[in-house]
Amino acid sequence: ATPMSVMVGVGKAAEAGVLIRNGEALQSASTITTMILDKTGTITEGAPKVTDVLVANKLTREEVLMFAASIEAGSEHPLAMAIVESAKEQGIEPKKVTGFASIAGQGVEAKLDDSVLLFGNEKLMAKRGINIEAFIDKAQAFAEEAKTPMYFAVNNELAAVIAVADPIKSDSIEAIKRLQNSGIRVVMLTGDNRLTAKAIAEKVGISEYVAEVLPEDKAKKVVELQSDGEIVGMTGDGINDAPALAQANVGFAIGTGTDVAIESADITLMRGSLHGLADAIAVSKATLSNIR
Ligand code: ADP
Ligand code: MG
């Protein structure tokens, strides 16, 4: 395309709230064959809320929320925000923990007084040899309702399951349909558990999804598709998504997402809506056809 037509295209896209960093991205957008969508914060609002707290008889609900909020105070994960917020709403004060560590894509750990606290997914519990049998059926039922269950252990013993729900953005279903209708293969990628991923994917009409992806493996999935001959678009909002955004043929960041994601992407969807994807591709097609 001529520099003039690219400038016009970039301007048109900007009117639709789509910020295009470079002319090359504008031209590549129309060639995308597969679009990868991150789940949390991309398809969903990324503002999960606590819906259920199930406790083993050792601790009270309040104690569990106090412990959970105390560890999560050190985390910037959307799940952590949900826990901290829920405790606050109920007037529960978090306490100061020591030895806080976050295990990417799995959870968090810390010590409070003499208690060792561990909070996260099934994988994390398995890794630490914690028996989750007592709650696994309940946790799976939550996941089938599209909620994310998190296990909480104190001193290596399961103490609770906390479930959170993250609503799907009101226009995600429509926006995904637009991509599919234009012949693009849509794949969802998430660190969340299989059952939750399946429930969300079904709700938004995506048949292909990969769940329980560790942060470092998101970019690998992009490479894999590229070696199959796909021209890959990647859309994400998190620090986790940054390597995949950089690896993709065209990276799209959610404007309300993290700075790292925005810096790693070619295009930013300022309105946070996935409609920006089909809008960008339409502008790209128009730009290229103008000069042919
Ligand atoms: P996503 O791709 O959905 O943003 P992540 O890779 O960040 O997911 O996390 C994957 C899973 O690891 C979460 O669904 C959750 O079960 C667990 N996890 C990650 N961070 C935390 C945390 N701060 N507290 C509890 N669980 C966590
Ligand atoms: Mg995300």
From TrEMBL:
Keywords: ATP-binding, Cell membrane, Copper, Copper transport, Ion transport, Membrane, Metal-binding, Nucleotide-binding, Phosphoprotein, Translocase, Transmembrane, Transmembrane helix, Transport. It is found in: Cell membrane. GO terms for molecular function: ATP binding; ATP hydrolysis activity; copper ion binding; P-type divalent copper transporter activity; P-type monovalent copper transporter activity. GO terms for biological process: copper ion export; copper ion homeostasis. One of its GO terms (cellular component) is plasma membrane. Belongs to the cation transport ATPase (P-type) (TC 3.A.3) family. Type IB subfamily. This is Copper-exporting P-type ATPase. It comes from Glaciecola nitratireducens (strain JCM 12485 / KCTC 12276 / FR1064). The chain holds residues 433 to 724 of 784 of the full protein.
